[in-house]
Amino acid sequence: MHEVGIMQSALEAITAQAKLHHAARVERIVLRIGTLAGVDLEALRFAYEALAPHTIAAGAELEIEVIAAQAHCATCATTFAIERGFIFQCPQCGNYSGDIRAGRELGIARLEFPHE
Ligand SMILES: [Zn+2]
Description:
Layout: H1 3-20, E1 28-34, H2 41-51, E2 61-67, E3 70-73, E4 78-81, E5 88-89, E6 96-97, E7 100-102, E8 106-112
Parallel strand pairs: 1-2
Antiparallel strand pairs: 1-8, 3-4, 3-7, 5-6
Helix pairs in contact: 1-2
The structure holds zinc ion.
């Protein structure tokens, strides 16, 4: 389950950010994850529940922003939604494109610290 490793590094980054902001705790964590990032969201939430209580993020609300995957067709300049895979067919002109423009996101979108 590589989601544990992902969450471990996220929590390390969050701890560093909290120190930078002189925050004693974190109120809300917003992660941005693309549908092509290869992350199981349920496993990620599970990892969060297991790991967060031992960190500065204890008690923080976890929100996950899911980014829909999109590819761009160079032939007709259309951006279209895609599912899993490597080569995608443009719904406008039928040409194939491997130019993925969204869906591989994996990271922290936003952190909120309490105003004390
Ligand atoms: Zn096209």
